[in-house]
Design a protein that fits this description.
Blueprint: H1 2-6, H2 17-26, H3 38-45, H4 49-61, H5 65-77, H6 85-97, H7 101-111, H8 116-128, H9 132-143, H10 148-164, H11 168-178, H12 191-197, H13 201-209, H14 224-231, H15 234-242, H16 257-264, H17 267-275, H18 290-296, H19 300-308, H20 315-320, H21 323-332, H22 336-340, H23 344-353, H24 356-365, H25 380-386, H26 390-398, H27 413-419, H28 423-431, H29 446-452, H30 456-469, H31 479-488, H32 492-498, H33 514-520, H34 524-532, H35 546-553, H36 556-564, H37 579-585, H38 589-597, H39 612-618, H40 622-630, H41 645-651, H42 657-661
Helix pairs in contact: 3-4, 4-5, 5-6, 6-7, 7-8, 8-9, 10-11, 10-12, 12-13, 12-14, 13-15, 14-15, 14-16, 15-17, 16-17, 16-18, 18-19, 23-25, 25-26, 25-27, 26-28, 27-28, 27-29, 28-30, 29-30, 30-32, 31-32, 31-33, 33-34, 33-35, 34-36, 35-36, 35-37, 37-38, 37-39, 38-40, 39-40, 39-41
């Protein structure tokens, strides 16, 4: 995860070389055997989730349970890392197995709908360690009727799932039962948070119409509008502004909404916020204004936009980055005698400013500087790439700069060009001999950077280059691995290029192959492509087949494709769940109908002995229960503890009780 941190130091200049050096020194500390997580916690408080994820990732790799737990939370929310529920579950499981109480509690909340006995066991383990949330949770369960606490949690999960799926009809049906429109989960997220994060526009509109609180903060102190800004969703930002959000709200690091949009580099969002009257010259806790951030981040379009609306630099920025001081220093280099006495720092300033007029004679006078390292481990070529000085980079390469000279984190200029999606520089570096297979400190090569950083054009360019070079390579090219990554990160275009050169046989550590990820992402086009190529519909290490995760994703076209090629409609996960049970658990009526039309077995039981009908009645899913009854589901079939769907309905005084009773033998018992 070193590469994630470098997004925070794109604008390295002569005045910030020391900051880069400090970063290079600090980050390895996260990977020590007994890591100090204070910097990670500070990064969370400052809303720098990318940096926090880097620290936690390094510590988690060393087996630190707290780091695994916190990293799981970031993966669940997609903060600083791509959202990945499966990865989050794996990390929580690892931390829980290490006896970390918070992870045991978090995993219990995830399992309570699918594995109640397992959830109870984890709650008791956490409570046994005096973990207060688990103790209070168990106390409330004892005070209430059996299952009532789980039912409350189930309602919250259903409420948020409806918001996530943009299911306004479902929200309307459940709102009376929920009672609290701002019901929160364990991360203090409301349904409005969830709907904004998933871009569920209709759900956001309905929730705001129902007077959902627009300024609620989650446990990371992130508001719905901050989430919308991070998602780059101008439509939702506009709607939330009209709903009366606090225009002057601040993040823990002192950033206001204009700061956030500037960090995202989105001029459209910035215009919306400026027009709404959000303060444009607010300084954060580092004393930086939005204009400072735009200028430091080398975002000229944002600098122009902010300046046109009256934005000014802070006094701190003006002192640190005085244009006059830099101009005087460069002016001194006009003297040829000074050129011969120039050092690498002065050459770096010329590269950053794109001043080829002085850089060329300087390097003619001091050619040894061409491949010299700066004090932070960087190089002139790396600086040219970081600051998108394409013509300077071309000159440096033509003059003999080494294209693969690594900087801190073992990053090469090609890694940096790919990360930024600078196709001109990618081509330039490749044609000058850059090796796309070189790996950084995280063992990632250029293609892995392109795929994980969502740079499909760069990934396609690299794929074409590697394909063209395959006959002359002494090493086997990892096309199988690249196809797996392209599928995982939902990039059908790159997968299409790679597929003719891949067997599609590679799996990740969790046993997931390319077909599995295509189904999990609900990408029917990629799934069709992989099925035509004959990829295997194998299960992962938890027994989840592509059909299971396609149902989970809600992609009916994916499910139909998988059924057409013979995927087992009644296959079970390690926990005994069938695709039908997953459709029940996700409250997806259309998916349920599709599976029933294809003759899904309604009597299969999971490891707890629960049938789909028992799961549905436990969750009070009226329409799902009726569809299962229409499919002749057995209402008296008992689970491992001797309870049937009919028993549950009777115990809860369910309005469905009479309907279930009619499906017993002669309606009698």
């Amino acid at each position: 995860m070193w590469k994630k941190n470098l997004a925070q130091c794109n604008a390295i200049s002569a005045g910030s070389l020391l900051a880069g050096l400090l970063l290079a020194v600090l980050l390895p500390l996260a990977a020590t055997a007994n890591p100090d997580l204070s910097e990670a916690r500070r990064a969370v408080r400052m809303q720098d989730f990318t940096l926090a994820a880097a620290y936690y990732e390094a510590a988690a790799a060393q087996g630190n349970a707290e780091a695994r737990h916190e990293l799981a939370n970031l993966y669940l929310r997609g903060q600083g890392v791509p959202r990945d529920a499966a990865r989050a579950r794996d990390l929580l499981t690892q931390a829980a197995d290490q006896g970390y109480a918070a992870a045991q509690f978090g995993l219990a909340l995830q399992l309570e709908e699918t594995d109640r006995s397992g959830a109870m066991a984890l709650l008791q383990l956490a409570a046994g360690q005096n973990y207060a949330p688990a103790q209070s949770y168990l106390e409330r369960m004892e005070e209430n009727s059996p299952g009532q606490e789980m039912d409350s949690r189930s309602r919250q999960q259903r409420w948020h799932a409806l918001a996530r799926n943009d299911d306004v009809a479902g929200l309307q049906q459940l709102v009376t039962e929920i009672g609290d429109i701002d019901l929160v989960d364990t991360d203090n997220r409301t349904a409005l948070h969830v709907a904004v994060q998933t871009g569920s526009t209709a759900a956001v509109e309905w929730l705001l119409h129902q007077h959902a609180a627009p300024d609620t903060r989650d446990r990371f102190q992130v508001s719905p509008i901050a989430d919308a800004i991070r998602q780059g969703n101008a439509q939702l930002v506009t709607r939330l502004l009209t709903a009366g959000v606090n225009h002057e709200q601040l993040a823990p690091n002192g950033d206001n909404l204009i700061h956030l949009a500037t960090r995202q580099g989105n001029p459209g969002l910035l215009s919306v916020l400026i027009d709404a009257g959000v303060p444009i010259n607010k300084q954060n806790k580092d004393g930086l204004s939005p204009l400072d951030l735009a200028d430091t981040g080398n975002k000229p379009d944002l600098v122009t936009l902010l300046s046109a609306h009256g934005a000014v630099h802070s006094e701190k920025w003006t002192r640190a980055r005085s244009v006059d001081a830099q101009s005087r220093q460069i002016a001194r280099l006009e003297n040829s005698a000074n050129l011969e006495r120039s050092d690498i720092g002065q050459a770096a300033q010329l590269v950053i400013s794109g001043n080829s007029r002085l850089l060329i004679p300087l390097l003619d006078a001091r050619p040894e500087l061409l491949n010299e390292s700066l004090e932070d481990g960087s190089s002139l070529l790396a600086l040219a790439v970081k600051h998108s000085r394409n013509e300077v980079a071309r000159y440096l390469l033509d003059a003999g700069a080494r294209p693969d000279q690594a900087i801190f984190g073992n990053l090469t200029p090609l890694h940096l060009a790919v990360r930024d999606g600078n196709l001109e520089l990618v081509r330039l570096l490749l044609t000058h001999g850059a090796d796309p297979l070189l790996r950084d400190r995280d063992d990632w090569d250029a293609m892995e950077w392109a795929l994980t950083e969502n740079q499909p054009a760069a990934a396609t360019l690299l794929a074409g280059w590697l394909i063209g070079q395959r006959d002359g390579s002494d090493l086997p090219l990892p096309f199988d691995h690249y196809l797996l990554l392209a599928s995982q990160f939902d990039n059908a275009g790159v997968a299409r290029v790679l597929l003719p050169y891949s067997t599609g046989s590679e799996m990740d550590d969790a046993g997931r192959n390319s077909l599995w990820f295509a189904a999990s992402n609900g990408n029917e086009k990629l799934l069709e492509l992989l099925l035509r190529a004959g990829l295997n519909s194998r299960a992962d290490r938890q027994g989840r087949t592509p059909l299971h995760v396609a149902v989970q994703s809600g992609c009916q076209l994916c499910v139909q494709q998988l059924l057409q090629v013979g995927n087992d409609l009644n296959s079970q996960t390690s926990a005994g769940f069938t695709p039908l049970m997953i459709a029940v658990s996700t409250h997806n009526l259309q998916m349920l109908d599709l599976l029933l039309q294809n003759q899904a077995n309604v009597e299969t039981r999971n490891q707890q002995g629960n049938t789909a009908l028992i799961l549905a009645i436990e969750q009070d899913q009226v329409e799902i229960v009726r569809r299962l009854l229409a499919a002749d589901a057995n209402v008296t079939r008992k689970n491992n503890v001797g309870i049937s769907a009919l028993d549950i309905a009777r115990t809860r005084n369910s309005p469905l009780y009479d309907e279930l009773r009619e499906h017993t033998v002669l309606g009698l018992f």
